[in-house]
Amino acid sequence: MRKKLIAANWKMYKTPSEALNFVEAFLPLVAGHTRDEIALFPSITSLPTVIHRVRGSNVAAGAQSMHWADEGAYTGHTSATMLTAVGATHVLIGHSENRQYDNETDERINLKVKSALSHGLIPLLCVGEQKDERQCGKTEDVLVSQLAGALAGFPKEHADRLVIAYEPVWAIGTGLTATPETAEETHLMIRTHLEKHLGDVANEMRILYGGSVKPDNASALLNQPNIDGALVGGASLKPDSFAAIVKY
Ligand code: PGA
């Protein structure tokens, strides 16, 4: 049985005090919830505050991105060593917004996934096709190529810790959620591909869905056999809305 992971991607929202207010309100709403894992991904300036406040609870916290090097002349970046030093346990890698705006290439994503795993972080590797790619039947090619690039030379012994987040770009922040059937079909395709390359461990790996997940569509998505959680943007910014998704 794969335990589902419900994750909040706050993107570039919330100051540390706003993040703290969220956590204060959110923790009581999910107290005692053990069916699923819960993780918050605040901005880097709020991360230590959030980590401190969730310590000892059923909620984990991680970063929205990281650099692949342990240290060096990389102005503005944060390494896996720095993230683990403040107690982060998870990290998002390869989000489509980073692929689009920050020159996040498959090659860089590959280095980041390896660095995250070697430092004991749980990477959430984001993949997803653009609208025109789905419309012209290229979804499988795009996803297979993103996975192959991200996982080249991947250490199989760490595979059970890797989480994939399938986020169709056309569904992110648009209100256009993939139907549960479309999402399930795509997740199954991703798992079959992982199985071919990594073997049976693919059945232990979690594949999350992301893209306009909301309280009213969470249950239909999360009840699909190959959807092992959700990566939630907009609907994770309010404690009651994100708690309702956690309790789908
Ligand atoms: P959304 O964002 O839920 O606002 O569509 C999801 C994401 O980008 O991770």
Mind explaining what this structure looks like?
The structure is a single chain. This protein is α/β, with parallel strands linked by helices and 248 residues long. The chain has a single domain (5-246), classed as Aldolase class I (TIM Barrel, Alpha-Beta Barrel). Helix content is 40%, strand content 15%. An eight-stranded parallel β-barrel has the order 1-2-3-4-5-6-7-8, surrounded by six helices. α1 (16-30) runs parallel beside α2 (47-54) and α5 crosses α7 (139-150). The longest helix is centred in the last third of the chain and has 19 residues, at 180-198. The model has no long low-confidence stretch (mean pLDDT 97). The site of 2-phosphoglycolic acid (PGA) has 13 residues, from β8. 2-phosphoglycolic acid is lined by residues 9, 167, 172-173, 210-213, 231-235.
Written as H for each helix and E for each strand, in order along the chain, the element string is EHEHEHEHHEHHEHEHEH
Largest sheet: 8 strands, parallel, barrel
Helix count from the secondary structure assignment: 10
Distance between the termini: 18 Å
Strand content: 15-25%
Rg from Cα: 17 Å
Tertiary shape:
globular
Helical content class: 40-55%
CATH superfamily: Aldolase class I
Q: In terms of structural class, how would the helical and strand content be classed?
A: alpha/beta
- Neighbour order of strands in the largest sheet: 1-2-3-4-5-6-7-8
CATH architectural name: Alpha-Beta Barrel
Overall CATH class: Alpha Beta
| Structural domain tally | 1
**CATH topology name:** TIM Barrel
